[in-house]
Amino acid sequence: MIIAMEPGAEREHVEAVIKRLQQEGFQVHISQGVERTVIGAIGDRTRLKADMVAAMPGVEKVVPILQPYKMAARDFKPEGTKVEVAPGVTIGEGEDIHIIAGPCAVESRQQLLETAVAVKEGGASLLRGGAYKPRTSPYSFQGLASKGLEYLAEAKALTGLPVVTEVVDASLAQEVAQVADVLQIGSRNMHNFALLKAVGRAGKPVLLKRGLAATIEEWLLAAEYILVEGNFQVILCERGIRTFENYTRNTLDLSAVAAVKHLSHLPVMVDPSHATGRRLLVPPMAKAAIAAGADGLMVEVHPNPQEALSDGPQSLTPEEFYKLVKELKPFLEAVGRRLGRLRDEAEVRSSLSRS
Amino acid sequence: MIIAMEPGAEREHVEAVIKRLQQEGFQVHISQGVERTVIGAIGDRTRLKADMVAAMPGVEKVVPILQPYKMAARDFKPEGTKVEVAPGVTIGEGEDIHIIAGPCAVESRQQLLETAVAVKEGGASLLRGGAYKPRTSPYSFQGLASKGLEYLAEAKALTGLPVVTEVVDASLAQEVAQVADVLQIGSRNMHNFALLKAVGRAGKPVLLKRGLAATIEEWLLAAEYILVEGNFQVILCERGIRTFENYTRNTLDLSAVAAVKHLSHLPVMVDPSHATGRRLLVPPMAKAAIAAGADGLMVEVHPNPQEALSDGPQSLTPEEFYKLVKELKPFLEAVGRRLGRLRDEAEVRSSLSRS
Amino acid sequence: MIIAMEPGAEREHVEAVIKRLQQEGFQVHISQGVERTVIGAIGDRTRLKADMVAAMPGVEKVVPILQPYKMAARDFKPEGTKVEVAPGVTIGEGEDIHIIAGPCAVESRQQLLETAVAVKEGGASLLRGGAYKPRTSPYSFQGLASKGLEYLAEAKALTGLPVVTEVVDASLAQEVAQVADVLQIGSRNMHNFALLKAVGRAGKPVLLKRGLAATIEEWLLAAEYILVEGNFQVILCERGIRTFENYTRNTLDLSAVAAVKHLSHLPVMVDPSHATGRRLLVPPMAKAAIAAGADGLMVEVHPNPQEALSDGPQSLTPEEFYKLVKELKPFLEAVGRRLGRLRDEAEVRSSLSRS
Amino acid sequence: MIIAMEPGAEREHVEAVIKRLQQEGFQVHISQGVERTVIGAIGDRTRLKADMVAAMPGVEKVVPILQPYKMAARDFKPEGTKVEVAPGVTIGEGEDIHIIAGPCAVESRQQLLETAVAVKEGGASLLRGGAYKPRTSPYSFQGLASKGLEYLAEAKALTGLPVVTEVVDASLAQEVAQVADVLQIGSRNMHNFALLKAVGRAGKPVLLKRGLAATIEEWLLAAEYILVEGNFQVILCERGIRTFENYTRNTLDLSAVAAVKHLSHLPVMVDPSHATGRRLLVPPMAKAAIAAGADGLMVEVHPNPQEALSDGPQSLTPEEFYKLVKELKPFLEAVGRRLGRLRDEAEVRSSLSRS
């Protein structure tokens, strides 16, 4: 880290900082300018001490140089992480591009099964659907809870689609992990560290949505919480950040996708539905996400958006979803990738016998 | 709610909307303009249906008119809620102004006891200190956990100061409630609805910090989650929102204090330490908070900020804290209020015998 | 517009609002709910009166329904505006996709001519380069001014490339218009209304960058200022908005591209260089912009970014630019469009003789 | 400045950076860590070269240490600038606190004169009123232009109040300066550098509003543009920044007031009217501004807000203004200051004869 002392900082303050850094085991370089002293401290592998130094008298600014995440960093695993969810469903750099689709919330058995069949038909290789729903208002539909999980299990049995569903509290991680193939951490919970630790220990891949006010660095630190628990099956998901613009529900930050690809080895997906909040904008943003380098998409589909108990305005009908998937093809080709698809048992067996 | 149809929306789409609204029991008023039809729907007490209507074909925009929170609204309790934490420590409109002070985190028995004695001496009537700490990085100090709670209990026994400490997960609500007099919900957990429900049922007053990207409406809805559980002892706390400005850690939104006083009956405190992230800015913002109408302050104090395991740069030393409290006096007088102070047992007894 | 009265507003206040609306020629619909009165006023073609009504006693909220821009709105010209800059260089919906490339600032004759030749070679059909530069610091390079315009004229004579350059003050509009084929309004000047009016009267196409804190509505209103002056040759340019994220210079809002396509008939380009501020992110964002439906790109190219007097870190070298243009091809095909290119005189003549 | 090389940057890249820095006259200190090389460069008095170095291969990040403004910095003039506008009206640190009041826009002779008399009566010592108005929509009232200036001159003759009015284009600086005692730069023009230079040369004090998306550093750099022209009579004015919160028109950033007091010697005023956009919030924010250390207030007053051609909802009536000024008194006392007031000719003469 770099410590800039205030212009005219007292000599004893400068010396106190140097002494402390040396005591902490840092290698110290002092640059004495006309106006101020700047101190370089090498050895700050964790950035933990920056605040302490910043609180010392005469210190104007402490600038950390190292990125604070370690295991989430690209150089920790230069080749890129691949998350295998099911046969044929491996999410990561250079792999096929997968689409997670389904309703915002599981509302009923029929709604879910109908949607599951439809999105599989349309080209999705994973099914989404919230059994536990974090809602801004206590008066909004809060999800069917364990009943919703049952329906998800049934939808999976019916279609074979692996299931992505949200965990909203650490105490639910085990229950949800019994049904889900991928545990989703929602945007509002990205900073719920107890939850991050719990899914880190639940033994299932995790889809970590970016917090609506989280910087890229904070997002990667949230991933680090999961990695530290020994779970490396983490998929990031950009879903829009909060800005002053109000035509869209959030502002989709596609440059974050490219940035994360550079900074980290973790796969990144994009959710254009929550990002825009408007059905109309989902297809162009899905295409743009592919072009930006995303490893997959998460799209809300509802058989009847105007009856949806949440997020109707941003949900595609099955027909709109089919159309989108078709339109995505040339963009997949443009990035040299294919639409990932679930392999059924017969295929899996035959591929095993060949190998 | 108001439904604006698209210009040139088809007749059947307009009629479908009207029909649906009537079926849902709304009283419907149709305004036929030159360019478009606008439909007023009276009876939307919950705003739950707005999304469904917004998802119907031909609908351009749905504008809710009613505020979505009910029990947190000013007209639910026009006289203002007062939260009694301890004898002499009642927080609310027209009451004395209380200061919560203490370290960001409980770091050791000595650090906490020393700080507790100092802040009481200085004029605080509540002690803060995190036993469980939500930290952006998994490598940062995460708090002493139950050991930290023990020290808080000891500090309370020593000084008599009621204790405010954070609950970071629903599963900890009961444990923390055994020691804490006020359960704090931190900014990053304002949208952790499982936690909000848990503290709603824990039988203790709650200090609800505003989420760093939460609108005032969302903040009041988070309070509503607690109120709905039957717990009306909720104190709001503004602590800065995230903006593009980076000189300060957050941007303190003091207009939110005045706005909340208008919109809600709940007391509001201000935390100038987290809001600014700079010791230098804490005193002017503390004064401004009082002037803006806050019912109290929450200030970080550390006996030795440069050794603090978190938030050193924004922590006041005990001496700085004493100075601040002294300087606050004329501002308290200007708003016609006094510095609240804890009454000790003798006083309580004597006041009881008088009454 | 819709006027929501406060709950319990006095009868005389409600009546005053109604009376006033009627006097202003509005058709008024009254909806009397249990808690409050909501008034619909039809005929508000300009939204001018909303503030006046909002200031009346008893009024809680005024919600405008109509969009405030008229000539910039899609329904004003459903078929889409096409801006013809030069033979072969027509920018707009369904047309070829054009690339504006060149240095941030004109720094010297050699730098500009060299870059101009290079970007033409690489596939650009318009040349950018600032002669007048708006710079945050008075100590930064402010541009070569009229000398810079001379060099731009020379570069145009040499390569045939039409020139896009910024006007930073109304008084310069005429001078710049003598050299420029497209007048650029920079992000910081999007709300400089005197300048908007001046370029509206300058008789040249205008490239209107989105203000860094401007909503889509405000951006279209800025376009409206130009349209109102009779100049319909307006090209919008998204270049990132200011948010809390600091890894990128700005946050590129590609959903705004799709939104503007829906709301307006004006062409939209994207500047991934200013949006991201990082060379590394320019190619993926250029591709994503095409996928999102942009009608063109504006890319900074410098023969030697590390000597650039401004914006070096986000400038591509000519080689990187060539590579990008090559990589764009499949994305252009995916959206069913081609790279636009300038036609030279011989082609123009031959095409004229054919027609 | 500090240059962090990428982890594993090539030796030749590191050497190229060092060589270049030395050629530019920097004193260079190299810190060789395990993972990366960090280079400290002393002598970067202008920060101009940071971008060039950032564009060199192998460079990860360049961190400027010096603040980029010089003449606006506190250490340039530690004692604080005082701007004398008229006898008795000196704005600055330790001086009396002045209130600028008046309508948003000059709408008519009568409206202005009536308001001028009222605000003087109420305690204002400067009159505000826009003759030229920057408006988001071309269809909104754009001001009375030179007729408005005439009325302002008349109002000044009538009441003696010095006049503050906005310059919206460089070409108008001279005309406005003939009437105005203080030239206002509006928020949307804070980055209009041609205008900043023009008012820097106009020979009148300048009230520089903070841009709605400007950081404190950018705001001080805008001031620097004026100072560089030789005009040191600059008053800063905080008026709210743009954030995601939409209950208020902007978010008033009072910590910026305290920050600017620390970073700069220039006086700072606060405009609670534009900051909040709601009449209701003006009084509490005016009080908070005083408590935060502001040197003055700018408040919108209109004799009949519901007829105001702009900003009615945030304008106080004269009666509300009187009430506010009265209520401010204890807060002025709390900060040890008094309400500034214009001295009339007799007072001035008598004070001169005494001295």
Fold and architecture overview:
4 copies of one chain form a homotetramer. Chain A has 355 residues and is α/β, with parallel strands linked by helices. Chain A folds into 2 domains: 2-63, Alpha-Beta Plaits (2-Layer Sandwich); 74-348, TIM Barrel. Helices cover 36% and strands 18% of the residues of chain A. In chain A, the strands form 3 sheets. Chain A has an 8-stranded parallel beta barrel with strand order 7-8-9-10-11-12-13-14, surrounded by 7 helices. The first copy, chain A, has a 4-stranded antiparallel β-sheet with strand order 2-3-1-4. A two-stranded antiparallel sheet of chain A has the order 5-6. In chain A, helix 8 (254-263) links the parallel strand 12 and strand 13 (268-270). In chain A, helix 3 (109-122) packs parallel to helix 11 (318-334). Chain A is elongated and about 75 Å long. The termini of chain A are far apart. The mean pLDDT of chain A is 93. Chain A binds chain C through residues 213, 215-217, 241, 243-248, 251-259, 262, 275-276, 280-281, 284-285, 287-293, 330-331, 333-334, and chain C through 213, 215-217, 241, 243-248, 251-259, 262, 275-276, 280-281, 284-285, 287-293, 330-331, 333-334.
